[in-house]
Amino acid sequence: MARINTAGAGSESAEQKALVQWWGMMRQHLAPGAILHSIPNGGARSIATGARLKAEGAVAGIPDLFLACARSGRHGLYIELKKAKGGRVSESQRNLFPLLEAQGYGVAICYGWHEAAETVEAYLADRWEPSHE
To answer: Residue 93 region, left (φ>0) first, then alpha (ψ -120 to 50), else beta?
Structure first.
């Protein structure tokens, strides 16, 4: 198996890039029809860009990634990916996650790409159980 590029390890961006690279190598084996995509909702932006994104429907607290694949009665899995050490969940995320779950989506908070990969594998194998901090 190819090595996962973890350049910049320690940042959420590097963790997310590593997870997406892992998914690219594993998708055909795990769930050929599933789609894992990012939701670029965070990051530093100008006031004008932030206002435009909000007007376009950006919602504070939306998780970083979405796995479009139904399993165990869930419509898909939202993944909030934090850096392996030191990441924390915001208040807007804590408020939003139960609403997503009430609509039939799984929500996972993962610390590091390894934990996220394990979560994806468990979800796809119908072994995933939600747990929040």
So the answer is: alpha
Residue 75, domain CATH: 3.40.1350.10
The angle that helices 113-124 and 12-30 make with each other, rounded to 10 degrees, is 30
C-alpha distances (whole Å) from 55 to each of 3, 49, 107 are 40, 10, 25
Q: What is the DSSP letter of 11?
A: S
Q: pTM here?
A: 0.88
The answer to whether residue 7 sits within a structural domain is no
SS3 114: helix
pLDDT in tens, 81-118: 999 888 889 999 999 999 999 999 999 999 999 999 99
Cα separation, 57 vs 88, in Å, equals 24
Count of domains forming the chain: 1
Q: Residue 81 and residue 124: Cα distance in Å, rounded? A: 18
Q: How far is CA 120 from the centre of its chain?
A: 10
Residue 11 in domain? no
